[in-house]
C-alpha cells in the first residue's frame, strides 16, 4: 500500500493545502461576517438614532411653527391694538386742535374788531367826557340859578316850591380796550 500511499501523498498534500486554504477562507469569511454584522448593527443603531432625532426635530418643528403662528398672531393683534389706540388718540388731538384753532380764529377776529374800534371808542369816550363836564357845569349853574330864584322868591314872600332832589355826578367810568 505504500505505492498507493506514495501516489496518494501528493493528492493528500494537495487536499491538505486546499483544506488549509478553505479553513483560512472560512476564518476570513467569518471575520467578514462578524464585520458586516457589526457594521449592520452600527448602521441599524445609527438609523434608529437618526430616525429618533428626526422625529424629535419634527416635533420641535411642529411646536415652533405653532408658536410662530400663534406668536405672530399675538404680536399682530398687539400692534393692531396699539395702532388703533394711537389712531384714536390722533383723532382726539386733531379734534382738540380743530376746536382750539377755531377759537383762536374767533379770538383773533374779535381782537382785530376791537382794535379797529379802539380809536373810535376813545374819541367817543373823550367827546362824552367833555359833554359830561359841560352838562355838569350847566347843572351847577342851574342849581345856582334855582338857589337864587328860591332866595328871591323867599325875599319876595312867595311860598317855597317843594325842593326836587338833585343827583350829583362825581366821576365818569372809562373803558379801556385790551389788546
UniProtKB/TrEMBL annotation:
UniProt keywords (A-Z) are: Coiled coil
Point out the coiled-coil segments of this chain: 12-67, 118-152
Instruction: Tell me what this protein is called.
Output: Uncharacterized protein
| Protein species of origin | Wolfiporia cocos (strain MD-104)
Starting at the broadest rank, the lineage of the source organism is: Eukaryota, Fungi, Dikarya, Basidiomycota, Agaricomycotina
